[in-house]
Design brief:
Structural class: alpha/beta
Low-confidence stretches: 1-27
Order of helices and strands: EHHEEEHHHHEEE
Radius of gyration: 21 Å
Oligomer: single chain
Shape: elongated
Helix content: 25-40%
Largest sheet: 4 strands, mixed
Mean pLDDT: 78
Number of strands: 7
């Protein structure tokens, strides 16, 4: 990243009243927010307003190549979140992008996009909403495990995937010799596993 000009070296955002603006497509944004537990979206925005001293614009994005982004331009912040996600995934994606804004406000030009400072701010921000009754204890526990080392991508921790999908069993937890079926019609049998690599055979082709 290029070094900032000298006159921006000690730049501080002006402390202003933060206002979240919903740009065209706001009806879809409200639909996405409605998949969160009651009151959680408003709590997220109110908490963000206390921590980000700049105007924030939140909107949806339809791009397939990414699930969200945060862009800082002067004293304005633009956050876009994919319309593909709802519920807990939407919560984690929105807070992921808000954490970028918080990190920038605290450490402008001083951190990598998904460095230690961002991870600390992301974890701290998400944990503010635990133990408030928004999620079941099982999902809260899985989110806390997930946030121990927050990923920079949309990948979810196995425990969180299991909490969100009752009955889901990761392939790595299936015993060798056990048959299983994926989303299609084929049946498979697990024959061997070496570390994180799993070997299995499709029985329909036998």
């Amino acid at each position: 990243m290029d070094r900032p000009p000298q006159y921006l070296k000690n730049f501080q955002f002006p402390k202003v009243c933060v206002k979240v603006t919903q740009v065209p497509g706001a009806h879809r944004l409200r639909d996405m927010a409605s998949t969160l537990p009651a009151g959680l979206y408003d709590d997220i925005i109110a908490t963000m307003n206390d921590m980000v001293p700049t105007k924030v614009t939140i909107s949806e994005c339809n791009a397939k190549s990414f699930v969200g982004f945060c862009k800082i331009r002067g004293d304005k912040c633009y956050i876009r979140v994919s319309s593909e996600y709802t519920g807990v995934r939407y919560f984690l994606t929105l807070t992921h992008e808000i954490a970028h804004a918080i990190t920038w406000a605290k450490y402008p030009y001083k951190t990598s996009p998904h460095g230690k400072e961002w991870k600390d701010e992301y974890r701290s921000f998400v944990l503010r909403f635990m133990s408030k009754g928004y999620f079941t204890s099982k999902i809260e526990h899985a989110i806390i495990i997930h946030m121990a080392n927050p990923p920079f991508c949309a990948k979810l921790h196995t425990e969180l995937v299991k909490a969100l999908n009752p009955g889901f069993v990761p392939i790595k937890e299936i015993r060798c010799g056990k048959k299983f079926r994926l989303s299609g019609e084929h049946t498979y049998v697990k024959i061997h596993q070496r570390y994180s690599t799993v070997y299995f055979r499709c029985l329909k082709t036998q």
